[in-house]
Structures are given as C-alpha cells and as structure tokens.
Fold:
Amino acid sequence: MKRTMISFVLIIAVGLSLGVLGISKPVLAADVVIGNILPLSGPVAPIGKVGREIREMAVEEINAAGGIKSMGGAKLKMIYADSRGDPKVAMTEAERLITKDKVACITGAYQSAVTYPSTEVAERYKVPYLVPVSVRDAITERGFKYTFRVAAKASWYARDQINFIKALGERTGLLPKKLAFVYENTDWGTSTAEGWRPLAKEAGFDVVLDEPYPANAPDLTPVVLKIKRAKPDFILFVSYIADATLLMNTIAEHEVDVMGMISSGGGHSDPKFIPNTGKNSLYHFDACEWEADLNRPGLKETNAKFKERYGYNISPEAANVYASMYVLKDALERAGSADSEKLRDALAKTDYAKGPGMIVPYEKISFDKSGQNPQAQLVVVQIRQMPDGSIERCTIYPWAVGRAGYEPIYPIPSWKWRKAVGRAE
Amino acid sequence: MDIMVTTIINGILMGGVYGLTAMGLTLIFGVMKVINFAHGSFLMAAMFLTYYLFQLTGIDPYLGLVITLPLLFAFGYYTQKVLIRPVFKIERDVREPISVLMLTAGLWIFMDAFALALFGAFYKTIRTPYKGAVLHLGDVIISLPRLYAFLTTVILAILFYVFLKKTRLGRAIRATGQDRDAARLMGINIDRIYNVAFGIGIAIVGVAGAVLMPFYYVHPVVGVVFDIRAFIIVVLGGLGSIPGALLGGVIIGLVESLVAQFITATWTEGIIYAIFISVLFLRPEGLFGFKAEW
Structure:
C-alpha cells in the first residue's frame, strides 16, 4: 500500500513537472508547434511508444536538414498528449493542444475510436488533423475539411485482395474463376467477407463457397473437406493464429490443390505462423499494411537507423507515421506559414511522391476531397523459401515495390509434387 | 463421394480423441461424484509436458508416454491427496460436494494463468517425422497422426475396461463409485481409491495430450477448446461410463464432420447442443444407459 502510494505520488510529480515544462519552456517564435495525440499509457501503450519514437526520429531528421526552409529554417516542435486510448480524454487533449498550445496541426491518434471524435474537435476549431493510420472508414467520410488520412481504410483490405487476384491473373494470363471465402465468424471475418462479396461479383468471379467458421473449433478438417468439394481456384481467408495453423496443415494433409490462397494478416502474419506450419506455408499470399523488405529507396537505411536507436524494426503503423511527418514538412514548405488555414490548403494540395518519407508502398501521397489518400493500399507478400533454406515473407505486390528479384510463384504447385520434392511438411 | 468417406472417417477418428479427453473426466465423476472443472487444464499441462519433452530431448510423444504417464498419474494423485481431499473431508456427508467443484474451478483458472506466465501466449506445434503424413486409400485420405491417436484410444479404452472389470483394484474403484459407504464397510480404503482414481483420470488425459500433440497446437487455454466437448460427451454417453464416453465422442465427431458438409460450420456447435439438450430430456441417464454397469 505504502509503496503504491509512493509510486502514485511520484508519477503525479513527474507528470506535473513534465506538464509544467511543456508549457513554460519558451517556444521560439519561429518554431512550428505540432500536437500529437497518442495512447502513451493503457493497453496499447507499446504502439503509442513506437509512434512517439518514430515521430522523434523523423522530426530530428527534418530539423537537422534545415527545418522548414520557406519559413527561414523554422524548426518543428512536437508536443505529445496522452490519450490513454480513451476517446473522451483525446477530445479534451485536442482542445487543450489547440487553445492552449496553439498547435499548427495535430497528428494521431492510432485507435479509430479515439481518432474519430478527436478529429471532430479539430474540425470545429479549423485546425488540420493528419491521421497516419486509423483504419475506420467513416473517419474521412463525414465531409470534414481538416482531416487528412495517409493510410488505407479498413474496407480497402477486401478491395486490394480482389485487385491482387485480378492483377495476378492478368500478369500470368491465368485468371482464376471460382473463389472460396473462408473466414472466422466474428466481426472481423464477417465484415471483411461483406467487403469481398460485391467486389467479387463486380469483377466477374464465381463464389463457390462462403463459409464462416468458429475460430475456436477443435477440428477444422470438416471445413477443409468442404473447400475441397467446392473446388475453388482461389481461397480468401480471415483467420486468427490457432485456426490459421490448423487450416494450413489440414489443407496440406488433404491435398487441397488451388491456384492460390490469400489471407488478411492477423493469424497469417503472426510470428508463429511460419514455424507452426513450416513448409506447408510456402507460396501462401498474405495481404498486410507494410513489410520491411519493400523495394523503396532509403527504407533499408531508415529501418536500420530506427533499429539501432530503439532495438526493433519499424512497424507498419510507424512507417505511415514517418511518411506523414514528411508530408507535413512538405505542406509547411508550400504554405510558408504555420497558419492553420494556409497549412490546410497546402495539405489538401499535397502531391508527395519522392523524398525520404516515401517508405510506404503507395505510388504517392495526395488527398482527395474527403481528405483520404486515394493511393493508399496494402501490400501482398508471398511466403517463400530463400536460397539458404529459411522461409520468409517476401513482398511481391504492388509490383513496383516488390522485393527485387522475386516474382510471384503462381499457380502454386500441387501438393503431390510439393510432397515429392520436399516443398511441404 | 470419396470426400464424404474421408469426412466420415475423419469424424470417427477425431471423435475417438474427443472420447479420450472425456474418459478421464467420466472416471473421476463416476467414482468421486466430482466434476473436475480443471480437466482441460490438465490436458493443457499434459500437452506442454509432451511438447517440451519432444523439443528438449526429441523423444516421440508416443514413446514419451513412458515418462509422461507416471508423472501425470503422480500429478493427479497428489492433487487429489493434497488439495481436494481436505475440502472433501469437510463435506463428507454430501453426495455431490459443491466446494470441491469450486476448488477444481479455481484450479482451472490458476493453471491456465500460470501456464500463460510460464510458457507465454504463443501457439506452439511440434514436428514429428509423421506430422502431416497421410494414408491414401484410392482417393480417400486418412491422416496418420489421427489414426494413431484413434487406435491408441481404442486400445486404452479396452485395457481400462478390462482393468475395471477384472482386477481387484478395478473392482474396488467401481464399488466406491457405486456406494461409498458400503465400500468403506467392505474394508476399502476410500481415500486411497480416490487418489488412485484421480491419478488414473489425469494419466488418461496425459495419453490424450500425447496423441494430440503430433497434429495439434498447444496454448495455455487449449484445454477450453476440448473441455466443452468433453462435458457434453460425458453426459451424452452416460455419467461414469467408459464405453459411453468413447461412443459419445464418436457421435460428436461424426456430427461435427457431417453437419459442416451440408450447412455452415458455425451451425455445428448449435446442433451438438441441440442433441445434448434432447438427450437430457429424453434419456437423462445418457444415450447408452450404461449407468448401472458400474
């Protein structure tokens, strides 16, 4: 009890002094103050921490390179506000950042549920709010003028998976006709499947199986046999790790031959997926936000620098944050002022295609009328065996950012052949 | 057609494994009239034991039974002796002691949380030489690890049945299950029988853990996946009945496999529960009515 009291008092003391420092530190007139709302405590604090680290690194780089040149070398100054992952706290913090700290712009807030209401506050005060990653579709669908999002919307997962299947078919001349949807039966799986249905119809695919399954089922062999009977050309998955493991190993056992399989991150991106399925995972496609092997100039160096400083790789969220900081810098250069209105107009005219911030897989970053970056898209990796025998996730799509020297292997070889030559467990 | 045959075979094989997970539960219930809520956690412990034995020494799960079985028997024996018996003593005169139920429920939560702290939250699998091996009969495909698991289950069920019917200890266990007080009057050491029954129950779970590992994953809450199935099977087959558990398991396995072929897999669970409820209504003593056999 006593110890908790002491640590409680300490935390408050540190918090207060930080707060006081934040306010009392003299802000140079030339500085551009940027407010950042992040979940620095609470259940997703680790992500907030990475978000802060990548921001610090990007801003340091920008400032070291001479700051905002059109503003006489003005430096960027970051102020961080802890949302605690709580929408209400985030709204108060947004208000504080705008009225008290007079920020030129806000960035954040990672969680969609937090971003959604806090962008509303910024809209009311007419301060631009740059959203690197929150995925909820509605964030840029409310007719807001001051909200800009760099990364893809949630529903674009489905869009990009279907697009990828089409692109793969066009590239190889082997267009699959029959699709199977196999997904876990909670929100995530069913809402993704809802996205697939109209897109598949539009693209002229036949859906031969539309199968939700309980993620905690002890045996998924019945589902796999059902897939086998439906004879699809391409399977689309939404799975957690336990079911992804069972499905993949059972598909190998029952030798379900298809042209390709694509999943939606989650279990298939889990670090244990490849160890648990071994060579059975080879040739599997997985759609995800970002991979560290993207073919982008400067990415390797940026990642190495980040890893050296903080001890781990840039995360998909962090990559988008890093790009966002450079987008902001670019807009400030063009605006030539920290005035919110001018900055908003400059952001709206963004057309960022080249520069150190382009470590994301998009062709460029610009914003449509709704404030969404229409070029935002996911990447597709294929699980491949490297020459040294190790198994890696290898980016192949969008074609322009695929790992150098790697073409997709498609259609995937038959299980009989794979088992004969040791490309399966 | 071949796929339907494959489906039926898979249902039977998987059902056998479900039956195996239920067998220990039904024994403990039959003898002690205690529902062991920590059953799934014991399964999880058995799977982790098998996992680490294989990862650290490379001993095959089936061969490893020589080591895991005595360990798990001792685990069960002493869990009963040290943890359950004192609580049991207090409620000596109650036929179905509630506080023991609470105790096993607490044990379940403790074991799962402890495993999470000790082994981490990752899903782990092992790679035995026969992992993913299959038997082709024409176009019918049979998973070998599951076939081995099923055969082991059948052999174990037969051995265990004979043990209960023919041996002195087996008879004492059955007598205790039928009438605790009469058994005591006949000179049976009830406490020891309880220890042994609990130990055997957990050892059977150990076999389930060993046969599951070659084709399944292990995780701190993996027990929950099988727990619910096991409880349904025990009631379905008749509380305390060994053949009932095995047949109940096969029925559940078949329903699960076949239902998914005609309607969405998410319905399987619903249909299993519907069968469960109708059995409770129509034949509360269990589908096979082996109740009096004990």
The first strand of chain B starts at residue 134 and ends at 137. The interface with chain A takes residues 3, 6-7, 10-11, 14, 18, 122-125, 127, 131-132, 134, 141, 143, 215-217, 219, 224-226, 229, 253, 256-261, 264-266, 268-269 of chain B (CB under 8 Å). Residues 2-32 of chain B form the longest helix (31 residues).
